[in-house]
Amino acid sequence: MSEKKIAKGFGLIIIGSEILDGRVEDSHFANTRNLLAERNHSLTYTMTLVDEPSLITGKLKWAMSRPEPFFCCGGIGATPDDYTRQCAADAVGVTLAYHEEGVKIMESRFEKKATPTRLKLVEFPEGARLIPNPVNRVPGFSINDAYFLPGFPSMAEPMAAWVLDTYYERGEKIITRTLLLAGVRESDVIPLMHEFNLCHSKISLSSLPKFVEDGTEIHLGLTGNPKDVEAGMAHIIQSIELQGMQWEEK
After folding, report:
1. pLDDT more than 90, % of the chain
2. pTM of the entire structure?
3. Fewer CB within 10 Å, N- or C-terminus of the chain?
4. Which residues pair with 128 in a beta bridge?
């Protein structure tokens, strides 16, 4: 096994018309977000796509052109509306072929019932690697840093966990600290935020305005590694107090 990779965020593509038209409630997003958070990783983007080959292929090409790895859930079955395997092959410019190890798994799993339809489940883009499936042994596949998983969340979740633990280092510990500024409008803190960002490029600073019973309040969130956030808190508190604003930490 080669050295594990370092990832700066992950993407998630969910394939399924049944999610978009309301027949099925999605859980891939929450499952993936939680798996990543447990390993100090984050989601950079997510999208849910209708079962349309040209759209799927285009978005896969886009995702493959980006620096972060991504998961793609759904559309790798053998029914006529399962397009993801072919779209993945088209996105990288290769053909589909029966995966030799995958065929052996299917023949071991189904024996004489390993029909051509079932073997189609391991017809993957040439050069693909297998992702083991602990639920029913029918594997997913990966191409470079793109990981293709079933549409069933009960299968996709442990398979995604295997990918993360097998190929990627745990991420850097990230924390968020939040300051509440009562009676403040968002426009009041914009200059302060611009100045802060110039000094603390490694920290993500966010502003969440809220309307409350007696006026407005701002929640300023600082997200980053503990050392950087500690330094950022000292800076921003000083800036807030110089502006005569009152604060409390949430």
Report:
1. 90
2. 0.87
3. N
4. none
